[in-house]
Amino acid sequence: MGRSPCCEQPHTNKGAWTREEDDRLVAYIQAHGEGCWRSLPKAAGLLRCGKSCRLRWMNYLRPDLKRGNFTEEEDELIVKLHALLGNKWSVIAARLPGRTDNEIKNYWNTHIKRKLVGQGLDPQTHRPLLTGRRPSYEEAAGKSSTDEGGDLDLDLTISLRLPASANGGSNWRAIWPEMATPPPPPAPPCAPTICFCYHLGFRSDQPCSCRASSSGHFHGCYGFTGS
DNA sequence: AAGAGAATCAACCGCAGACGA
DNA sequence: GTCGTCTGCGGTTGATTCTCT
Fold this sequence. Notes:
This protein is mainly α. It has 9 helices and 2 strands, in the order αααααααααββ. It has a two-stranded antiparallel ribbon. It starts with 18 loop residues before the first helix and ends in a 7-residue tail after the last strand. It binds a DNA duplex through residues 1-7, 14-17, 36-38, 50-52, 54-56, 58-60, 87-90, 101-103, 105-107, 109-111.
C-alpha cells in the first residue's frame, strides 16, 4: 500500500495546539461539519495535517465530550468490555458516551491496569497472575472464567460478524442459549447487532434501550440500569 | 524551596481497511 | 484485479503536572 505521509509538508505545525488553532478548527467544523480531513487544514487556515486536526477534534474539542474523572460504573464497564473485546479501544469508547478511545486507553494504562495487577489479575487475560502458565489463545478466547474470575462473563466466542446460519438458521440457540427467540436478521451491510448489555450481564426488568453504534457492527446500552 | 522520580495525558507514528479510479 | 488515497485505530512517546523527600 503505497501511501504518502500526511505530515511531511513543510511549515506544518506539530506539538501542542494553541487556543487560536483550536478556535479556528472549532469554527470551521461548526460551519462546514466534519469530514474531508485531508483538505480541512488548508480550508480552515491551519498549518496542521488533517490527521492532527481529526485527533484534536475527536479527543478534545468535540462538544459532546464528558471529561472529568471516570465513575465507578464506567470503570467496571471498561474492565468488562476489555475482558470481552481486548484492546479495541474505539469499540469500548462507543459504549461509553462522552469518552474517547484515547482517554479510555490512557485510563486503562494508568489506572485500571495497575488496579487489576494489584488484585492479582493479568490485565490482558483477566485471569489470576499466579497460575504459572499462560492460557492458550483458544482458552483465552473461548472459555468462560466464571470458575476463577468472579462474575466476569468472559465468553469471548462472541463474534463481530455472525455466520450466515446464525440468523434464521437453527443454531442461533447454540450461540445465544439464554435468548427466547432467534436474533433479528442482520441489517445490511454490517451484520449483525449484538446486545452488549445482555451479554455483559447488565440485565434488569427495564426494557433494553440499546441503539445502534455509528460503526454499525453491534449495539449496546448507554445508561443501562443493571449492575 | 528545590530537585527527583512518578504519574498523567495530549499528540504523534505507522499500519491496515475501505473505497474509488 | 491493481493501485493510490483517505480515514481510523492502536501503540508509543514526550511534555507537563504532581508527589515525595
